[in-house]
Amino acid sequence: MSEPAAAKSNPFDPELFRPAAISAEMQAANEAMRKAMLTAPDWWEIGAAAQRASATSGRGPIPPAPKSERARTIYATAPDGRKVPLRVIAPERARGVYLHVHGGGLVLGSSEGQDPMLERIVMNTGMACASVEYRLAPENPYPAAWDDCETAALWLVKNAKSEFGTDALTIGGESAGATLSAATLLRMRDRHGYTGFRAANLSYGNFDSSMTPSQTLTPERGLLVGKLNIRKFREAYLPAGIDPRDPDVSPLYARLDRMPPTLFTVGTLDPLLDDSLFLYARWIAAGNEAELAVYPGAPHVFNIFPTPLGAPANARIDAYLKRAIA
């Protein structure tokens, strides 16, 4: 299914969710991904640190992302004096700043692994990109990652103009990065009175840690991500005694007024499908502008891999962000 179907004016068109909407090319890509992941060990069996090291060294099923020669690191200072790294890729004259938050279930991933994505966004939007190197679970459970992203956002609000020559800010991320991006928007509004982000890009986030129906109904071992993965990630990042429906953890339960225009992206085979559908609906009901892009047959993180729908999804994201700072 090509981009025009995903871009229909009615994102809840039932045609998008029917098996017939899944193209043969997307089916083949899903099967190739399934086979590639068959021999991959589970991170909770070998340990998070070992899984990260395997991914960085290229021993895993997914080759490491090439590094950008122009990437540099700057540091945002937290209230306690701790330094939060931001990996920056910027054009000579930035038209805006995109605060990026990477995915990985709050356990895996790194800002270093985002260079190709950041380079693409820089090229297509003219913005500077800054990806947060937030602390990971299980070594650093909630609220460590949340605090780091809040620190990065607050620092950019105060320093983007002097650092990049512009204070036109946008924010976004994929999977756990979308979760943290939504939480950061809420913290900036509630703790600092800031609602100045021009746009948000929230791709297939987990917006309900108590698990939406699509999460609970997905197979234990799904395509790339299944119910078992989701539970293991939650056990790692959410300490005992924390309500999984706390709005800081699960933005679906937050008061959502005064949020920026937002693009929600998700595939119909993603276990987190309901998270995007539900939060999009609540975003709109709170009086905010939003778009929902639904991609038939797309699994979790489909636009990070070279799938048939990845390129059109990324093109729509880039165009959305570019319009926000025009």
Descriptive account of the structure:
This protein has 326 residues and is an alpha/beta fold. The protein has one domain (3-10, 20-35, 72-324): 3-Layer(aba) Sandwich (Rossmann fold), CATH 3.40.50. Helices cover 38% and strands 14% of the residues. The protein has eleven helices and eight strands. It has helices at 3-6, 24-37, 43-46, 48-57, 115-125, 144-164, 176-192, 213-217, 227-237, 273-285, 310-324, and strands spanning 72-77, 83-89, 97-101, 128-132, 169-174, 199-203, 262-267, 290-295. An eight-stranded mixed β-sheet has the order 1-2-4-3-5-6-7-8, sandwiched between helices. Helix 7 links the parallel strand 5 and strand 6 (199-203). Helix 5 (115-125) packs across helix 11 and helix 6 (144-164) crosses helix 7. The protein is globular.
Question: What is this entry, summarized?
Answer:
This protein is of the alpha/beta class and 326 residues long.
Descriptive key words:
single chain, 326 residues, alpha/beta, Rossmann fold, 8-stranded mixed β-sheet, 11 helices, 8 strands
